[in-house]
Design goal:
about 350 residues; mainly beta; twelve-stranded mixed sheet; two-stranded antiparallel sheet; 2 helices; 14 strands; about 40% strand; globular
């Protein structure tokens, strides 16, 4: 996971909204207005050079739009209780086991069309086009062979300061009660790439996470505290608890698409509580996440008492083959060995 300190500028606006005490959407205009504000914040962050954070904010904006409103919550930062607004989601996405041709020698052009989606029954709809434009094809597309093996469930919470959207707190968590852990995928920036198992094609790893929201897919949680015009702090320790309290109402739209999967949407209410310590970190592409040089590490504490938060449950219905996962970054080279003196 790539973290960085963010520096960006934003315009000032108001972000007002509240829950209606139910899982159905409130006045749809509230959701659209809040979503537009997240889009503006995302554009500002992206202009500062940090696309993953922008993608997370756009994801949050879509959840607000689908929910139709936000829920008032109390977030405590460095011991001071603050009135924030929040939305939540449960994202049920397919666990794909894919195999990519390793020596095809064919690279699809960047503007080709993705293949047609596959629905939850494994059937490709006959009337959905997936033909690449004839004038851009330099060879047949290199597509993986993928099999759906179960469903992963993850839950996200995003809360923000409502006056100017100057502060944003978010977590991405496995189902249930867990602690901060490395390697938890940030599903707000993109769905995890498919699992590759060339030695056991079609045989999944032990995931344990099901469409009903059972824990086990990606144990732990990740958290971020973002301050506009200043930067981001990332969770280094802490715990959270989440629970799906209710689901089944209507969203403002019955479908949503994130990354390589399409989802059905139903309104939901989730309970979250959290307590975490966050630190400022800087990402170096060659060496990974490190402390900023010559700058003391800055820490904050962020907590939220048990709170019911309106949001959505998104359940996958179709997918297209995802891009091939990037190879792992090489380990940093160690120091050169001490030369041996050949003379006796």
């Amino acid at each position: 996971m790539r973290h960085t300190t963010l520096l960006f500028t934003c315009t000032t606006w108001l972000a007002l909204g509240c829950g209606d005490g139910g899982t159905g959407p409130a006045p749809e205009s509230d959701g659209r207005r809040l979503a537009a504000q997240f889009e503006r914040l995302a554009d500002s962050v992206e202009s500062g050079g940090y696309s993953p954070a922008a993608e997370a904010l756009r994801h949050a904006g879509e959840i607000v739009r689908l929910t139709g409103h936000a829920t008032p919550v109390v977030v405590t930062i460095d011991g001071v209780s603050r009135n924030f607004l929040a939305v939540a989601e449960q994202l049920d996405f397919p666990n794909l086991i894919c195999s990519w041709p390793s020596d095809s020698g064919v690279v699809p052009p960047p503007d080709t069309t993705r293949p047609p989606p596959v629905d939850s029954t494994g059937v490709t709809p006959p009337d959905i086009g997936g033909v690449m434009p004839g004038d851009t094809v330099v060879g047949p597309p290199v597509l993986p062979e993928c099999t759906v093996v179960g469903t992963h469930s993850m839950r996200t919470l995003i809360a923000w300061e409502p006056e100017q959207m100057a502060e944003v707190v978010r977590i991405v968590a496995d189902v249930g009660n867990n602690t901060v852990a490395a390697g938890v995928p940030d599903v707000m920036t993109g769905l995890p790439a498919a699992t590759v198992d060339s030695s056991r094609p079609g045989i999944p790893p032990d995931s344990g996470s099901g469409s009903g929201g059972e824990p086990g897919g990606f144990p732990g949680f990740m958290g971020e505290y973002l301050v506009r015009n200043v930067g981001s702090w990332w969770a280094v320790e802490g715990s959270q608890r989440n629970e799906l309290e209710d689901a089944g109402g209507a969203c403002t739209d019955n479908r949503a698409t994130f990354d390589w999967a399409e989802f059905d949407c139903e309104a939901a209410r989730l309970r979250f509580e959290l307590e975490m310590t966050v630190e400022s970190l800087r990402y170096e592409p060659l060496t990974g996440v490190i402390d900023p040089p010559d700058v003391p590490v800055e820490r904050h504490t962020v907590s939220m008492r048990p709170s019911m938060v309106d949001g959505v449950r998104l359940t996958w219905v179709a997918w297209t083959p995802p891009p091939e996962p990037l190879p792992p970054e090489p380990e940093p080279a160690g120091p050169d060995p001490i030369p041996v003196d050949p003379t006796p």
